[in-house]
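Inputs:
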Amino acid sequence: MTLLAVERIKLFSTRSPWWCMLLALGLTVGLTAIIAANWDGSPMPVMGAVFTHTFGLYVIMVMAALAVTTEYRFGTIKSTFQAAPDRTSPMIAKAVVVVLLSALVGLAASFGSWGLSWLLADDTSQLALSSGNDWRHVAGVGLVFGAGALLALGIGALVRQTAGAVSIILVFALVLENVVGLIPNIGDDIQNWMPFLVAQKFILGDPDPSGIPDGAGPPAIGELSPWGSFAYFAGIALAIYIISLVVVKRRDA
Amino acid sequence: MIEAVGLTKRYGKTVAVDNLSFTVQPGRVTGFLGPNGAGKSTTMRMILGLDRPSAGQVLIGGKPYAQLDRPLRTVGALLDAKWVHPNRSARAHLQWLAKSNGLPDRRVDEVLDMVGLTKVAKRRAGGFSLGMSQRLGIAGALLGDPKVLLFDEPVNGLDPEGILWIRKFMQGLATEGRTVLVSSHLLSEMALTAQDLVVIGRGKLISQSSTTEFVERSTENTVRVRSPHADKLGAMLIDKGFTVREDSDGSLTVSGALSDEIGDIAAGSGVVLHELSPQRGSLEQAFMQLTGDSVEYHAELAETGK
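Outputs:
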């Protein structure tokens, strides 16, 4: 318990996590506001309110990576390990704090976006959270942010450098996952298993067809069900995080 | 008490610390002396469990660091004053450290007061001068009121006032019965601060003794003699078996003899003396000779090994 308090103090006593959280919220909600205000002609579906969650996700992953890499950058990781020489317990405490916080930011971003869409969209007849699918589209963002933060923590602890960790995350999510589809023949099959695209299927997949015109829904990604997709994404995050725990334990600090 | 037994650290083919064994006693300041790159910092990181020894172990009060319960209450360390998040306030930095080992918040104010940082406690640590950073680092080391303290080059880059403060502070800690290990590459500084010396070169132990013993043993004592009859006196001294060197200004430097003996010899044969002064070899010279030897020794070993 005390180690959770320690990580909380560490996180909130510097400014960058605050900026990252504000940016994640602002980007997601702000872009949704633009979309909602310009949604003409048809009723706005619930999914329409959460398209923009990926922007917030990248920012929150940067925050999570920073939570580890700045400790290496400024040498405080040594003090951390002097205070808790088993190393694993402070890293787990950090993960609990950062993942919970990220999930909260995710929920704030998605419900904020949804609430704002209610106010700005012309036709909100389809915007009510009336089915399990609708709830998944909105509340699922919290889960994806949490899992993404765990993945970023693992990458940060493995790479130990801010620039390296952030580049890996952004290049993978924004470039590699899209470029891979260009590979002839097998590209599409590989792309179906790319973690960030699969995570999107959890949020946007299998929507209630009644609110969407024919052929206008998001492309179906992957072969897993929405919840299977989340399990896949969270599983990858957990695996990388656990590898990082083992490496951190064995490596010289 | 700190006890290192056969401590070894290899990075690939380079051996940073080589089968190092020494003990550090409580109630005294022990200097950990060696030229830059001798393996002092690596050894200190191994003492704190930050680096894993390739062989051997270090015990603190009979236990390896990793087995200490709430270790900041047993061992305090200042390895690098810049190991602080620059945007975190001094107080917040100490707060999380204190919290991690179940130390009360009031202890943070106490140590801030001890090192004289109370007024700047709310300022971001990145804006601190080197002297202030050192003080913050010392405050962090003292948080758990530990019995064992490690300082890595604590006076590096400090002004004379800061150096004096740290020296007094460490001696005070030792007087309270704590075990204090201070690393430095300056023998002159350690001669003023430390009662015991652990000297290493190229990762190997060169000597462990009291500081006075080390200084006496390692400095060459000579006597400078000036005389209008330097040739005659020189010949007589060589006959007696002393080593005599003639300097460019015509004076003699005699080693192996006490000034009393030289005076007696001169008086016995009616030689006039204009100067008869015992010279103490510089600490730096002695230190360089010693650690230089360890380098040569190292090279010889490698050759015979083939």
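Remarks. Chain A has ten helices and no strands. Chain A has a mean pLDDT of 91.
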